[in-house]
């Protein structure tokens, strides 16, 4: 029983990172109707930017959040203009091909720029944990979880309380009508994509105390958040949040009960079952057209 | 109806092309060049199989490496442990691929958009993990070798690559013929209608779900057959190389570079892309550099030439003109709106 509850806690905290990337994917999808397959690759770039800024400044990873966020914004803007913008209105499968291509390009660019040696961003709290009863909670994971909650809250405020948020919602409802109403939909798309990318990059920063900085660290983060957002219901922020936590828990519980290797297989099985029984996801309205 | 002419220019050209392909091993010296030709032929077949669902059906699959893996592993496990000929184990691989394709398709083809693509990525990833985990049967991450015990057609082991060249060539021709027949069949036409406009197709009584599922099953079965032969050709298979995203992308890019949804596309794509990758990996190194090309090519093709290299050779058809016209009209309306906005402002 102890193992079960402990793995539940671990899973929830690990799910926080999936949820953060998932919310980023959801914002992009909600506004542009594009599933960003490259989120995992942006996470890896986030890890490397953290590493580079650490090399320059020597600061703790958490203090680098503004710098890394700024870098991700510029990076996201450049990649958006170069690759996503040209296919925005082509529809069909173009965006799947472009974002998958982008994911492959970005991931392998890392291997070209950096040698495959794993790097680390030192952190004094790497191994510290909170003890609650007999259960322990890793501090870096807890911080990542809290940061995720803050960022999701921030997006919620942005969407619901600001004029720009309303413009985003209008664009998501109907880009044609939004344009008629004088909303600059191109700018909305750009900003939505940049927010999504920045979330993935910050997720990369938040996991640097836990993972080696290598090009392959992002592998699990490129598939699991996609499944999480579909589980929760594409285009639904609450769904992405809960979906992320759910896959984290499933991964940890399957991992602790059967074998750590089989965690992702458990997620895939859950994914296929949910898509089969409830195709629109747990909270989604579903997507009728591509 | 137009009368079918046996001696049309197209048919003569095809016969000449096949004849040229058949004599290439007699002219070209050196096993290395032959091996690249074999890779081209195998990837032309893989790309053609991918094209059934990815091109004609416009459902982007990233799990074709998993079907290659299923074909290759059923071949290797049965031949290494029980000495069964690859030709006899092929139906088993086909059956397993069929079952998995059905499971994936059943869940996701009722929906549209990216669901199918996400499910395929997840499936390939899970299969790779499962192969690594159940290592009693599959030898895990270390992979399986087939040891050479003399040339034998029934075991698919040969001293050099020339027999494989002919096997791959015959396989490609067979697959192209079957796909050609498929595109002319009722299901093939349905698939085209769904690609064009799924709502319209459904309102005409086409069961989009079933048609897409059939296409995916067909594509999976072909891929597992090619996978079995590809495995024998490589003589060594491991989950990291046969069941990765890399291979799935390679298969997809072959079809996309050549021209999605055309018969010639994957073949032309393979003969351009595979040598290109070969040169790139010589120049830039095995990992990173050459694989970067997959992504780069994918982006460039989709942005600048969505119809692939094939579209360079095609005379402008009526359909293209219509598309061009619509784009022009759209552009004009947009500009018109812009002008109006300016006036108002």
Short description:
The complex is a heterodimer of chains A (290) and B (345). Chain A has 290 residues and is mostly helical.
Describe the structure.
The complex is a heterodimer of chains A (290) and B (345). By secondary structure, chain A is mostly helical. Chain A has a single domain (2-115, 136-277), classed as ABC transporter involved in vitamin B12 uptake, BtuC (Orthogonal Bundle), CATH 1.10.3470. Helix content of chain A is 70%, strand content 3%. Chain A has a two-stranded antiparallel ribbon. In chain A, helix 2 (39-57) packs parallel to helix 4, helix 6 (163-173) crosses helix 8 (185-206) and helix 9 (219-232) runs parallel beside helix 11. Chain A is globular and about 60 Å long. Chain A starts with a helix and ends in a 13-residue tail after the last helix. With 345 residues, chain B is mainly α. Chain B has 2 domains: 20-311, ABC transporter involved in vitamin B12 uptake, BtuC (Orthogonal Bundle), CATH 1.10.3470; 315-345. Chain B contains 16 helices and 2 strands. Chain B has a two-stranded antiparallel ribbon. In chain B, helix 4 packs across helix 5, helix 7 runs antiparallel to helix 10 (208-234) and helix 12 packs across helix 13. Chain B is globular and about 60 Å long. In chain B, 45% of the residues are buried. Residues 318-329 and 331-345 of chain B have low confidence and may be disordered. Chains A and B meet through helix 4, helix 9 and helix 11 of A and helix 4, helix 5, helix 12 and helix 14 of B.
Blueprint (SSEs and pairs):
The complex is a heterodimer of chains A (290) and B (345).
Chain A: H1 2-32, H2 39-57, H3 65-84, H4 94-113, E1 129-132, E2 135-138, H5 139-161, H6 163-173, H7 175-180, H8 185-206, H9 219-232, H10 237-257, H11 263-277
Antiparallel strand pairs in A: 1-2
Chain B: H1 9-27, H2 31-56, H3 64-82, H4 86-108, H5 115-133, H6 135-138, E1 144-145, H7 162-184, H8 186-196, H9 198-203, H10 208-234, E2 236-237, H11 239-242, H12 245-258, H13 264-284, H14 289-304, H15 310-313, H16 318-344
Antiparallel strand pairs in B: 1-2
Helix pairs in contact in B: 2-7, 2-10, 2-12, 2-13, 3-4, 3-10, 4-5, 4-10, 7-8, 7-10, 8-10, 12-13, 12-14, 13-14
